[in-house]
Amino acid sequence: MKKLLTCSALALSTMAGGAYAGSVSACLITKTDTNPFFVKMREGAEAKAAELGMTLKSYAGRIDGDHETQVAAIETCIADGAKGILLTASDTSSIVTAVQQARDAGLVVIALDTPLDPIDAADATFATDNFLAGELIGQWARSQLGDAAADAKIAMLDLAVSQPTVGVLRDQGFLQGFGIELGDPNKWGDETDPRIVGNDVTAGNEEGGRKAMENLLAIEPMINVVYTINEPAAAGAYEALKAFGREDDVLIVSVDGGCPGVADIKDGVIGATAQQYPLRMASLGVEAIFAWAENGTKPALTPGKDFFDTGVALVTDAPAEGVISINTTEGTDLCWG
Fold first, then answer.
1. Is there a contact between 276 and 113 (Cβ–Cβ < 8 Å)?
2. Rounded distance, CA 328 to CA 87, Å?
3. Minimal CB count within 10 Å: which of 54, 162, 190, 223?
């Protein structure tokens, strides 16, 4: 059974499944409920909650970066007596105070996709290795350009000015993969390599990607490499390039590997993307809350890492020597995870 409720700025859905629905309750709080990545994350959480007989309440910000709505959602989850929260934070440092309030109230808090800052502000993190995801698309782009990589003109289409961890990790991973010396690896925008035309923010959506691309093309019309935080931003960047007649001579790389993004590789919009698996993240997160409610067990982390690594694969139909990848047929079979 699924009930839809409306709460001021919150997008809330309540799902009860199984004969014992309601015995354990959990919350899922995502950045938005429009990005397909988070839609699939919610579907994965709902399916696993139904399987385990849990009650799941799902909340989302109005836009990527809507920190206040996420704080309000955490407060609601505490008041409702939830056993745990799955969270993809918009502002990974500012949210820590609210997360600590939830933990102090006895809830287990699992970060999904986006590590908090510091990462141990959550009880655990289930995520792609976002630095590696960026590194893979950076290595691929450098290989595609060959010797011309030394004279590349790179546009960096990031997420938000608050620089949430997921955006920093992907950005810095891309630059390192491309062979660009990093400044402070905990932030983007302080690099001195002249190949970087500039950074602009997209809010992780198509319109933001289009505007950011237009802004950077105004600085350097001959940009030939575009890093994007995710595939909606990549789609917007492509539209801007198309309007300038540049869509066929610019490499666009991205992260997510969602079904629409893989289709965009087939159509020549994106050259390569790093695929992650939101259904797996959400399913594992729900299982972790159930275990916490049953016996107080917290999830184990991947050996050698400070999070549980849910995997990443480079998807492209133009493989690069020395960079392990899968093609779009395989990517389509795996998309959303």
1. yes
2. 30
3. 190
Q: What angle do CA 299, 173, 113 make, to 5 degrees?
A: 30
Supply 228's token pair.
């994007």
Q: Are strands 2-7 and 108-112 parallel, antiparallel or unpaired?
A: unpaired
Over the stretch 211-254, which tens digit does the pLDDT of each residue have?
A: 999 999 999 999 999 999 999 999 999 999 999 999 999 999 99
- What kind of fold does domain 130-275+312-334 have according to CATH? Rossmann fold (3.40.50)
**Residue type at 187 in one-letter notation:** K
pLDDT digits (tens, 9 = 90+) for 23-55: 799 999 999 998 999 999 999 999 999 999 999
pLDDT per residue as tens digits for the range 175-220: 999 999 999 999 999 999 999 999 999 999 999 999 999 999 999 9
- 234: phi > 0 → left, psi -120 to 50 → alpha, else beta; which? alpha
Supply the pLDDT for residue 4: 27
Query: What's the CATH superfamily of 2-127+278-299?
Result: Response regulator (3.40.50.2300)
Who's near 8: CB < 8 A, 6+ residues apart? 72
**Residue 333, pLDDT above cutoff 50:** yes
Single-letter code of the amino acid located at 288: A
Q: What is the DSSP string of 240-273?
A: HHHHTT-TTS-EEEEEE--HHHHHHHHTTS-SEE
Tokens of 158: 């990031």
Cα separations (Å) of 114 from 175, 183, 299? 19, 22, 17
Residue ranges per structural domain of the chain = 2-127+278-299, 130-275+312-334
Dihedral, CA of residue 209, residue 69, residue 117 and residue 204, to nearest 10: -10
d(CA 211, CA 227): 14
